[in-house]
Amino acid sequence: RDNREDLTAEIKKVEIEQVEFTKNSSTNHEKYHKFNLSKLEELNKLEREDKRGVRTSALFMFISAKGFGGNLSWVGGETKLSFPKDMNKSIRSVSSKIEYFGHLMDKCDITIENESFEVMIDRYDSITTLFLLDPQYLKLNSYILEPTRTTYGNKDFPHDVCIDMTTKIKGQFLYHNYKNFKLMELMNKEHIGVKHHTKFIKNTNSTSNSFETCVELIYHSKIENFPSSSLNNGNYQPQKMVS
């Protein structure tokens, strides 16, 4: 947050190291995988030595972007991550992502907070707010509010409370989750719409072109149900977004 230029410059150094290591190996997944593991080992060494400088941050940002977030964990004072053998995730630029987010922080009024969803909804809910809610995912096609098996997050996450508060939001919201039958029942309200989205899962299979799909549901508030739409000729435009 505070030293973006230094961080981006260091990440670019790592990306150059990747180019050199994988030279002439644009289709060699194993070589990208080996490089990612070497950067994770370097990061773990710095963590064990309790070094929290720009290099440590750069390595963390680089390797955390190489796998799905659910594979990332903190064990015994070290970052643990399993890398899928996915070419796109092996070569994509992390520095450009940091630069883009830095640009948004400079140009927009962004506040970063570390609070529970209960606090954030209570603090920011109004008819001019749009909430983006992406809680821990529930088991697919289940009839109970049981979360998927993960190595991160809160296994005791209060899904029932989050769902109840979401349905009572004064402004607008988008709420993502797997197709869960209990969730569908609780979200079945007159003022709530839903979109179905088929997505790929198990990215580790991507190199063999063997994909498994699942259905994600995106619940959303219906614009016409909000009184603020009358303030702008029927077009409701939130003035604040909370993610």
**Strand fraction band?**
15-25%
Shape: globular
Round the Cα radius of gyration to an integer and report it.
21 Å
Provide a count of the helices.
8
String of helices and strands = HHHEEHHHEHEHEEE
User: What profile does the largest beta sheet have?
Assistant: 5 strands, mixed
Structural class: alpha/beta
Low-confidence stretches: 203-207
How many beta-strand runs?
A: 7
User: Kindly, what is the distance between the CA atoms of the first and last residues, rounded to a whole number of angstroms?
Assistant: 18 Å
Side-by-side strand order of the widest sheet: 5-6-4-3-7
Taking all residues together, what is the mean pLDDT?
84
Helix content: 25-40%
Blueprint (SSEs and pairs):
Elements: H1 4-21, H2 29-48, H3 54-64, E1 73-75, E2 78-80, H4 87-91, H5 95-107, H6 117-124, E3 129-133, H7 159-167, E4 172-178, H8 181-186, E5 192-201, E6 212-221, E7 240-242
Parallel strand pairs: 3-4, 3-7
Antiparallel strand pairs: 1-2, 4-6, 5-6
